[in-house]
Structures
1.
Amino acid sequence: MSRKHIIIGNWKMYKNMEDTKIFLNQFSKLIKGKVIKCDYGIAASYTNLPVLKLNQFHNLIIAAQNCHYEPEGAFTGEVSIKMLKDINVSHVVIGHSERRMYFTETNEAINKKLHALFNANMIPVLCCGESDSEYEAKKTNDIIKNQILLALAGIKSQHVTKLIIAYEPIWAIGTGKTASAVEAQTVCKMIRDYITELYDENTAQKVRIQYGGSVKPENIKSFLEQPDIDGALVGGASLQAESFLGLLV
Ligand code: 13P
């Protein structure tokens, strides 16, 4: 089964509106005349999303970095899925390790967000990954299986086929240290096998699985050559237009 690669830049809490305009201006010039074969997008802070919408050029996927699972209500500081849809957001990054770590995002909340997103025809990018000590203790598979099992509770296979999963070992995020391509492939294959176990082979073959953690233009090809790695979720190297374009191989 051939799956189209998808590269998403996760800008985290970087760039204001002016920086975003400058990026888009540079990127639109650099991309002119180039044939891009993969899907690609940017996950930006809420305040930058309208700028991406206004300056949206062909095919750029606009992603948010979080959402609330309730349709509306007294949830000060939160943003609903409907609000995101209004500004052309189609994908939402869910369960990033930074949200799990610094904002105590639980597997239960992640599961509710996945249900709400699929019900709204949006595409979640579900992040999973183990910490340094879990990696050293060889607990990677158990940790990730548990994250996926809890995130996908009650989600139907027809929705899972649209899901993007990002495997991001925490020890590789922003550290310059990457998992080797073979190591990343082994975990991504384990994730796909686990989806087969939870659902079926056909569903698992449709899920796109990204690797994330210190991906750069210089190393992205080694990951994308792997049969079970269908793209990348990229932080630092997505912030500059030239470097972001260099990821779209
Ligand atoms: P870096 O590419 O900066 O390591 O960040 C990875 C990441 O967290 C993407 O979500």
2.
Amino acid sequence: MSEAIVIAVDGPAGAGKGELTRRLAEVLDFDLLDSGAIYRVLGYAVRKAGLALFDEDSVVQEAKLLNLSFECMDDGVHVLLNGEDVSKDIRTEEAGNNASKVAAYPSVRQALLQRQREFLKEPGLVADGRDMGTVVFPKAQVKIFLDASAEVRANRRVLQLQSKGKSCDFDSVLQEIKERDVRDRNRPVAPLKPADDALIIDSSDMNIEEVFKMATDYITQKTGLKF
Ligand code: DC
């Protein structure tokens, strides 16, 4: 039986899961599953193939054939589709929204389930997403639900975009975040919600150091892993 440890981190867009999970995976030397990237690549592949996001049959066919790989490079993990680096293309707000649309189809989620589970190997996995603790790894030893108010998340996203030299408008970012929340929380299969046994961290008034400390204290308590 595998002794691999799963640390599942779920939560809405912009709550800071990416930074927390990257740090946890690095410090623990665990693999990292960025499940959102899989849905982002799928949305991108569907659009690139000239297919419609609302056509569930086509989207599920793309999901089954998706030739996706993650590659570690000096500046972080890159995402490849058919061997082509699409890391930048999938990080736009539009790609996030398209991902949320394709992710709403139960058949698509089913088609991608096993692929996500295959990321688990010893010594362990840090899994970032919306349904890591509820559906993909329901037996995860550690489940964290990282939340923050929509306004705080929109503000963080604006600062992030500005730091990359991109201009953006707070109100439209906030509206997009709220739309994505509604879709992700209300879909019939694997909706965004905390697992019953998850630690909920509301990071609205916390910085990353405080979030990291709260998460690592909890991981130590649940698994004995030391930081
Ligand atoms: O984490 P992210 O912003 O990269 O995710 C993009 C979208 O993908 C998100 O709005 C909903 C979907 N998603 C999902 O449905 N389930 C996951 N486990 C991860 C992401």
3.
Amino acid sequence: MKDKVLIVYTGGTIGMVQDSNGALKPFPLSHIYDLVPELKRCSYTIDTCQLDNIIDSSNMTPDFWVNIAECIEREYDNYDGFVVLHGTDTMAYTASALSFMFKNLSKPIILTGSQLPMGMLRSDGRENLICALELASCHEAFIPEVCLFFENHLYRGNRSTKISAENFDAFYSYNFPSLAKAGINFSFKPHLFMQQNGQPLEVRKNFDRNIAVLKLFPGITPQVVNAVLHAEGLHGVIIETFGSGNAPTESWFINAMKEAIGRGIIVLNVTQCKAGAVVMGQYEASCEMERIGIIGGNDITLEAAVTKMMYLLGTYPDDHDHVRHSLQCSLRGEITVNQSRLS
Ligand code: ASP
């Protein structure tokens, strides 16, 4: 029997064509073979599924993540792999969210998109789509995880980040190597793939949106920090700190954090640097933070930190000890626990 891949279309630039006046509009996915006739030569069956509401991914919300996940969950046993067409702006957030939602995944889910609409002559969409489909149906290397394919690279979804609003190579994974590269052949790094554990698939669908991201900058005022920490209903905050996780040592800052932690708010420390990790206690500027109970985010991306915190608070609302513990563990390969594997 032929392999089967399902394309799930959520919106974004990739699905746009120009009408006779030159305006961009979404195209019906059922016409994909007209737009990309090369797909007729694929050795596997391709089916398509379009979400009811096609969006620019800047409108992405946890409810959409659930819609995407439910579409894949419904068809999970009927397909060998899944390709999600998604706008680039928040693709790394969705890839991260899906990675946490699908526990014990045993099939590839590959997100892709494009910088230029598929209906334009120089579009990068056709290449990205065809490669993502080939990878989702690939027998040479079986990739049981949520990935993001863009401009010749297959990245672990929850390690990727959008780095360019201009270039075709718009994504990168700073703290984890790419899982595969497309050249004349695909070259794979199977030792980096997540391993299947043989357990039945579980799809977790609860997200707690009551979190905040507080980016530090020299001169940040107590008013701004306190306004964020006292946002109504807040359950967690991610502080984007300097370098290897450093923040002001002034007492007003430490006291504000300590008071928030005392009110049950979970505080996660993530670095503003694109590459490298938070090492709490390396400098005096983070020792005190560690002492008052701020959690170190290691080398997690902001996208993975946001979705992981929403996922954990939504899944274990009454068990903050478990949330705190899990933030320090690798659930789906989103943080580095064993450096020796990274080559
Ligand atoms: N604004 C678009 C989106 O993220 C950009 C893109 O698709 O590249 O939906």
